[in-house]
Write a structure and sequence with these properties.
Length: 148
């Protein structure tokens, strides 16, 4: 297993632990990351993981990465948030888990990808938002799931 796959799987497990046990009726509460809810954060992660999937597919096909200098990430985040704000929790979860499954399938086809090519949109991103979710849970009194 490649270092990239290991890093993604380890960080994904931390993210899954962070969201485990959050009641559906609390998934839309604001304030998890700025004014975003857990639902918004997971939708945001799915979008950027989809971008990472494009990076892996380009690597598989020997294509160069598109130029990303000057990319207005904040504007992209706002647009994606606006486009997905009316999604239901089941719709968002389907997109979130489905994108991850497709990403992992692409990554397994190119297991030697340099982790630095995908870190910002995957494992570093999962860790950043897992920390946001855990901090929010602590603020609002939703106990994290315990390992048994």
């Amino acid at each position: 297993m490649s270092n990239a796959i290991e890093q993604v799987e380890t960080s994904w497990a931390r993210l899954m632990h962070a969201i485990e046990g959050i009641p559906d009726d609390r998934m839309s509460e604001l304030g998890v990351a700025g004014d975003w809810s857990v639902k918004d954060v997971l939708s945001h992660i799915a979008y950027w993981e989809g971008q990472a999937m494009g990076d892996v597919e380009r690597a598989l096909n020997g294509e160069p990465d598109p130029e990303k200098d000057g990319l207005d990430v904040e504007a992209i985040n706002q647009n994606v948030h606006a486009e997905r704000s009316d999604w239901t929790i089941p719709q968002m979860l389907d997109e979130f888990h489905g994108t991850h499954e497709r990403f992992m399938a692409a990554l397994r086809q190119h297991p030697n990808i340099n982790p630095s090519e995908i870190e910002a949109d995957t494992f570093e991103h999962y860790d950043e938002h897992a920390a946001d979710i855990l901090a929010w849970r602590e603020r609002v009194g939703i106990e994290p799931a315990t390992d048994s």
